[in-house]
Amino acid sequence: MSENPLVEGRVQLDLPRWKQDNYVGRAKHFFTVTDPRNILLGTTELEAAKELLALYRVRKEPAGTTVEDVFAAKRAYASSYHPETGDKMWLPGRMSFQVPGNMVICGLMMTFYRTTPAVLFWQWVNQSFNAVVNYTNRSGKTEITQDVLIKSYVTATSGAVVVALGLNRLAAKLPPLVGRLVPFTAVCAANCINIPMMRQSELLNGIDVLDEEGNVVGQSSAAARSAIAQVTMSRVIMATPGMGMTPIIMNALDQKTAIFKGARGALKQSLVQVGLMGIVLTFATPLACAIFEQTSSIAVSSLEPELKDSLSSKGLTRVYFNKGL
Length: 325
Known about the structure:
There is one protein chain. The chain is mostly helical. It has helices at 23-33, 43-57, 67-80, 98-111, 116-136, 146-171, 176-180, 182-198, 200-205, 221-256, 265-289, 305-312; strands spanning 207-210, 216-220, 295-299, 318-322. It has two domains: 23-80, no CATH class; 91-322, no CATH class. The chain is built from twelve helices and four strands; from the N terminus they run H-H-H-H-H-H-H-H-H-E-E-H-H-E-H-E. The protein is globular.
């Protein structure tokens, strides 16, 4: 049974509905968090959910409030508020916006990838979106300065453009399918640049690590490296099904049918690719987010020497941290 049990008939507000120590439970949790329908929730509905949870926490919820009412409020809150700061997240940066945002951007990126202006434009759009998502979903209360934000944004965009243009040139004499896979390769490369750059202050200063009771016991750069590696891997895996499979499908359709020929060929291609990306991302986004636990852990023996000695003297062998998304 993967669902967290009620305690004295009440929902445990600080825990997800499903246990997070197994993949199925994490997948169910992220299907609710990344559900695109959450972006339709207005300010009034979100504030009502937040208020209900606050009242429920002190046992002053309105009469007649059901367990399902509380779970619905938790779902709305988790989709729109940062899990540590409690701040409402900007809509384009929420995980519930990942599917509609990425389906359009990636679908069009894979349609218009042949010319230099198109590569420049769509890689810029994609990295702008990624920068917003990475900033919004950074771990803990880490602040990102404007200087860091600009540097990471420019570096990731430049890296993606260089990879895309370089591979386009190499792929010019290769089968069409190779060219169609160039955007995917560029996106993977950009993720490996953008996320560490955007979260470089965490690498320098560390992120909060906690004991089993949730008490902050220090800040660790080693934990930050683990968190960033996990998020980067998840993002690459998230992009793989859609941007890896869609080009293969589109290449087969292009070679075996005349559906994309004529004046409106590019429009038809873009619509089909956006649709395919939407279908794949609806499942790939939560399934990739669920690969690693949101509250991850690291052995005390793997921490920085001073922190390791300090925590070991307290009898701690493992500490926990929020990896971000």
